[in-house]
Amino acid sequence: MKHGLGKCLVAVLALLAAGGAAAQGWPSKPVRIIVPYTAGGAADFTARLIAQRAAETWGQQVLVENRGGAGGNLGMEATAKSPADGYTLVMVNNSQAINESLYTRLPFELLRDFAPVMIVSASPMVLAVNPRVTAGSLAEFAALVRTQPGRLSYGSCGVGTPMHLAGELYKFLTGGFIVHVPYRGCAPATLDTIGGQLDAVFATTATLLPHVRAGKLKALGITTAKRTPAAPEIPTFRESGVAALKDYEVDNWYGLMAPAGAPREVLSRIEAEVRRIVALPDSRTRMAGVGIDAQLAGPEELMSLLRADIEKFARVVKFANIKGE
């Protein structure tokens, strides 16, 4: 018995030593960050900001690879199939939690096949309306929807996106009926709201704020639990005074994960470097300029957030009968 325990102890110590050695020699080659979306969005911006600064510190290239398609599932699959050596990371957001209910079959298991690194940032979403809409607040908008069921429409950035789920969660909680019109991207949905083809739109602060500040749209509320530093004048849904919205929250967050089994010592080094990068005044200024808030938290918080979002969005997907494209 003692002999068996001794063997187990030796094996554990050998694994710890191997992990420490891997961390000391890392990185000895380029690091890759997969962004499972097209270039130009908040996930891409965040990944490139990290890549630029980290490359300077690590003395190795940090490459950003955009692998869009299937709601982010193609990039996630590519990451899951990569070696678990700390040289491949993926930028995730709550779309991955939504996809757990949206797609009946995925080529990976989110909570099994990936190791959490950290939460990095968030790009809050806003409900904005065309200036012709008489409502000037969320409470007035809720009253308008209640008296005119099915008469108003809202646009989102696509079926199954966090913006779509934000709109459907509003409907789920309030019982109000607004017609959903999906677009392939936030920009066209926003432009059609400005043009009057839509009454309202759910999109990110990065997309909407320039038009709100130009007077082309009215911002009624922000979907996060707290106001955003990027637009502190916009109240949250929770502050609306609408009882059904007192616990409303949809946060469009971004985090880093790696293939399951990646050395924890390496992932801890990555987390420490990203925290340093995001804390830089220049980084904060650049992020705020495109409507992104710093939102740093560790791997345990990332997993807790994923589990909570999977549960929350499962109810909304079922309620709205949303199917993955």
What does this structure look like?
This protein has two domains: 29-122 and 252-320, 3-Layer(aba) Sandwich (D-Maltodextrin-Binding Protein, domain 2), CATH 3.40.190; 125-245, D-Maltodextrin-Binding Protein, domain 2, CATH 3.40.190. The chain is 46% helix and 18% strand. It has helices at residues 2-25, 42-58, 73-80, 94-102, 110-113, 138-147, 162-174, 186-195, 205-213, 264-279, 281-289, 299-320, and strands at 31-35, 62-66, 88-93, 114-122, 125-129, 153-156, 179-182, 200-204, 218-222, 253-259, 293-297. A six-stranded mixed beta sheet has the order 2-1-3-10-4-11, sandwiched between helices. α7 (162-174) links the parallel β6 (153-156) and β7 (179-182). The chain is globular. The mean pLDDT is 91.
Beta fraction of the residues? Answer: 15-25%
Biggest pleated sheet: 6 strands, mixed
Please tell me how large the radius of gyration is.
Answer: 21 Å
Q: SS-based structural class?
A: alpha/beta
Number of helices: 12
CATH class of the largest domain: Alpha Beta
Mean pLDDT: 91
Model regions low in confidence, pLDDT < 50 over at least 5 residues:
none
Give the overall silhouette: globular
Number of domains: 2
The helicity comes to 40-55%
CATH topology of the largest domain: D-Maltodextrin-Binding Protein, domain 2
Q: In whole angstroms, how far apart are the ends?
A: 56 Å
Corresponding CATH architecture of the largest domain: 3-Layer(aba) Sandwich
CATH superfamily of the largest domain: Bordetella uptake gene, domain 1
Number of strands: 11
